[in-house]
Every structure is written in structure tokens, then in C-alpha cells.
């Protein structure tokens, strides 16, 4: 594992220890959104005229630094929804991605579009926490979890009514796919050296069974990338930086969707 990913995972374990000392799972079950009926990302991505865009709210990243640190969560996610994004992704990591404590809750409060909790989940406690936050969909990253952990965390997510996006980067991680997974994302960004390569993802996409929705993630910067990925079997496109670095991310999302429709 590369240092940054290793550091993020270590930080997650520390965070987890603190959170578990503050809130038990029984406490999480009492929280406002725990009973929320989830919106289906799978349904949103397969409906007629779906844009296929998973538009991400991202203030900063460990590789790029500040992208749009002062962005207003409500304005951006509402404008993504109005632009017809199929799913909206909100990063919830504070230390490396600059998320504010209130970002996810503020997004949940104003959206009826399926909402992805984007973080580095390393323990089932965080699956309960995601449900309590109002997530419809969680991300599990194969490179930081064992096959067994992916099975138990994805099964738990499904029991709680959420869907699961499994992120893989290379062939060796295909064995993390299991029947509780709904979407399989191929990260174009190599999390070891942070290089981005769309061709690599296309090769891997052919090896993902067709019953899973295939999501291309990271480094997507415009309609040509999307056409290329679409022509090579991807149905969904997770885009953060390209949208967030624009003055008006919602307008950029609308323009992009018009161009690919
Ligand atoms: O974005 C990063 O630099 C990054 C670094 C280390 C681990 C994960 C990272 N990104 C998380 C993501 O999943 C991206 O935010 C997402 O795929 C969107 O990518 P992009 O369109 O390139 O912002």
C-alpha cells in the first residue's frame, strides 16, 4: 500500500476508535436518518435517459491540494441534481479531503437523488454510521479490505437497505466481487503512484461480469473521455475534480450532460 493510502487507513482506525467511544451502534440506530428509505442508485443509473453521471462534491484531495475549499455544499449538490446527475457523491473525510462535519447531512437534507457516502470504510461500524448519516450507497475499496471484510460489510449494507459500490483497480481485486455488490467501479487513478490511465480501466471492464453496473472513476475530464468509456462498456462515470474546479460546478455538470446526451 502506498504511504498516503496507508496513512489514510491508519487515520480511519484512530477516528473509528474515537467514534466508537462516543456513539454505540444503538445510538446510531436512534439517529434521524437511520430509518430513511434509500433511493436506489442502480435504478437511477439504468432508467431511460439516465445521464450516468455520478457528480462528486470534493473540496480538496491529497494529490491535488485545494480544489474548491469554500464551495457551498447545498448550492453545489442542488445544482448537480437539477443538472440531472444520476447519483451524487459526497466525500466525508475531513483530514485529507477537507470535508466539513455537516456536509453530508446538508446534502441529504436537500436531495432526492441517490447519495453516495465517499470515504475509506475499514470496519462494519462505519456501515452503520453511513446509514445513520442518510447514505443510499457506500463505497468499499478492495485494496484496503480483505475478501471476507468486503463480504461482511456489503452484506450488512444490504441488510440496512443501502447499495454498494465496490472499487477495484486491477485484475487481482476481481475476486472481491460478491453477490451483495451492486456497482463495480474501476478506479482510473492508481492509488499507489496516483497516475491516471483510462485505457487500463477499459481492459479491466471486460472482465467484470455483466450483471454489475460498471462505473469508471477518477480523472474523467470531458465528453471525449465519457464517449470512450461508454463505447467500452461503462454505464456510469464518477467525476469530482473536473466539475469542482469550475466556477459553477452545477453548470459544468449540466453542460457536460447536454454534450453527452
Ligand atoms: O482524489 C485523490 O487524489 C485521491 C487520493 C487518494 C485516494 C483517493 C483519492 N480520490 C478519491 C476518489 O475516489 C475521487 O475523488 C473520485 O474518484 C473522483 O476523482 P476525480 O474526478 O479525479 O476527482
UniProtKB/TrEMBL annotation:
Pathway: Amino-acid biosynthesis; L-tryptophan biosynthesis; L-tryptophan from chorismate: step 4/5. Its EC number is 4.1.1.48. One of its GO terms (molecular function) is phosphoribosylanthranilate isomerase activity. Keywords: Amino-acid biosynthesis, Aromatic amino acid biosynthesis, Decarboxylase, Lyase, Tryptophan biosynthesis. It is an enzyme of class 4 (lyase). Residues 5-254 form the Indole-3-glycerol phosphate synthase domain. Signal peptide: none annotated. It holds the Pfam family IGPS. The keyword Transmembrane does not apply. It catalyses: 1-(2-carboxyphenylamino)-1-deoxy-D-ribulose 5-phosphate + H(+) = (1S,2R)-1-C-(indol-3-yl)glycerol 3-phosphate + CO2 + H2O. The keyword Membrane does not apply. InterPro entries: Aldolase_TIM (IPR013785), Indole-3-glycerol_P_synth (IPR045186), Indole-3-glycerol_P_synth_dom (IPR013798), RibuloseP-bd_barrel (IPR011060). Gene3D superfamilies: Aldolase class I (3.20.20.70). GO terms for biological process: L-tryptophan biosynthetic process. PANTHER family: INDOLE-3-GLYCEROL-PHOSPHATE SYNTHASE, TRYPTOPHAN BIOSYNTHESIS PROTEIN. This is indole-3-glycerol-phosphate synthase. The gene is trpC.
